[in-house]
Amino acid sequence: MFETLTKAPGDKILALMGEFAADSRPTKIDLGVGVYKDEKGVTPVMSAVRKAEERMLSSEKTKTYLGIAGNKGYGEAVLELVLGDSVARDRVRIAQAPGGTGSLWVLMQLVNRARPGATVHVSAPTWANHNPIALNSGLEVATYPYFDPTTRGVKFEQMLAAIDRLGPGDVVLLHGCCHNPTGANLSEAQWDQVAASLARTGALPFIDLAYLGFGDGIEADIYGTRKILSSVPETLIAFSGSKNFGLYRERVGAAILVARNAGEAETAYSQLLNIIRGAYSQPPDHGAEIIRTILTDPALRAEWEDELATMRNRMISLRKKLSDAIRERSNSTDFDFVADHRGMFSLLGLSTEAVDRLKAGDGVYMTGDSRINVAGIPEDRVGDLAEAFLTAIG
Ligand code: PMP
Fold first, then answer.
1. What would the mean pLDDT of 62-85 be, rounded to a whole number?
2. What is the model's pLDDT at position 247?
3. Whether pTM exceeds 0.95
4. Domain Aminotransferase class I/classII large, which positions (predicted)?
5. 229: Cα separation from own chain's centroid
6. What is the ipTM of this complex?
7. pLDDT computed for residue 33 by the predictor
8. Residue 97 and residue 75 in contact, taking contact as beta carbons nearer than 8 Å
9. Beta bridge pairs of residue 372
10. What's the pLDDT tens digit per position in 185-218?
């Protein structure tokens, strides 16, 4: 059987992690892998998560099946977090799914059942896994302009013009906040325009919400999603609890669908559950029960929101420190965009050669597209990094 296969391409980030681990220089810096790290360089278990787990350990009475849609209380809590009062609940359905990735997967499968071979329009660039998930689901992929390598902001006019040309049957994948890999995001006024465009053309918004709370706070980060929800008849949302709850390996996410009316929501949901049943039957519960416990307990929720704010503020402060350090050394504002970006990443816009030089010469690791994880910046090495970046672009 297997002699028919050729080797699939390896995962670039995993390869980069391997290279970093093999580098013996004590001064090496890892800005590659996409996980949050604290000032000690570790990805901690959040204290609210630990407390929720302790409660679960003492109160859990059974591990019997929960059903295809997973943990119902989790679903309700996530809807409350995401929707606010943007949309009538009878048009909304949610199924817990394994991570943001699993949520994207089942929703793309749903799109393909509704419109076989439909085109998913993704930002240029986008998260490297969007493309394969869409293609593996039988969909086509096209791109719309997004990142401007000169300003390192969003090419908004071109983006909007491209979205304006789409129509019913087209899917527009949007990063709800904290765009990966660029770090460049839409302003509220720009979200308003995108929502108005989608309402006009009838293209279907599909929102990837993997970093809620990592940008400017939960309310600010959810603005665009809610604006779209209140503007258009149908929306898909892939929610992830990997980053904001630090639950990466627990694989917790949610697939949310919003339909024109309760009847269509129920029909579409029956297809979604059918997709899940035929794929992995039911999602794992542990991470979902942690999130349910935290979101439904006022004290734990407050503790989680505080911890999330600490992570967010640390990233914002590292952004500012790096851009200040570069400005001091270069007398130029060329790197100010790092402070304007939000979320865990910034796309520096460096050439592949510059990325290679940084790695070989300075032991600074980032992905080949020159994306840095700002949470990986060691506080005491900001000056070194500023110099390394200036030399690399020099
Ligand atoms: N979407 C984006 C944009 C992401 O960056 C990620 C995580 N790297 C995900 C979705 C999915 O994350 P997970 O499956 O780990 O929840």
1. 97
2. 98
3. yes
4. 27-389
5. 18
6. 0.99
7. 87
8. no
9. 346
10. 999 999 999 999 999 999 999 999 999 999 999 9
Q: How far apart are CA 384 and CA 255, in angstroms?
A: 42
Start-to-end CA span in the chain (Å): 52
Residue 181 Cβ < 6 Å to ligand 1? no
Is 210 designated active site? yes
User: What's the CA-to-centroid distance between 64 and ligand 1, angstroms?
Assistant: 28
Q: pLDDT tens digits for 210-259? A: 999 999 999 999 999 999 999 999 999 999 999 999 999 999 999 999 99
Cα(36) to centroid(ligand 1), Å: 12
In this predicted structure, the answer to whether residue 158 has a pLDDT above a threshold of 80 is: yes
Which ligand 1 atom minimizes the distance to the CA of 180? 3
Residue 93 has pLDDT above 90, yes or no: yes
Smallest CA separation from ligand 1 atom 4, residue = 210
Active site (annotated) includes residue 12 = no
The closest alpha carbon to 240, from 375, 347, 343, belongs to 343
Compute the distance between CA of residue 207 and CA of residue 219 in angstroms, rounded to an integer: 16
Strand 235-240 vs strand 204-209: parallel, antiparallel, or unpaired? Answer: parallel
Strands across the sheet with 235-240, in order? 92-97, 253-258, 235-240, 204-209, 171-175, 119-124, 140-145
Is residue 173 helix, strand or coil? strand
* Sole residue written with tokens 């019997």: 64
Q: Is 328 exposed, middle or buried (0-12, 13-18, 19+ CB in 10 A)?
A: exposed
Strands 364-365 and 371-373, by their bridges, are unpaired
| Residue 192: Cβ within 10 Å count | 16
The answer to whether the beta carbons of residues 184 and 170 sit under 8 Å apart is no
Distance, CA of 312 to CA of 211 (rounded, Å): 10
304: annotated active-site residue: no
220 noted as active-site residue: no
**Is 210 touching ligand 1 by the criterion CB < 6 Å?**
yes
Q: State if residue 183 touches ligand 1 by the CB under 6 angstroms criterion.
A: no
Quick one: tokens of 74? 């989790």
Pairing between strand 153-154 and 147-148? antiparallel
Half-sphere exposure of 314 (CA within 13 A, CB side): 20
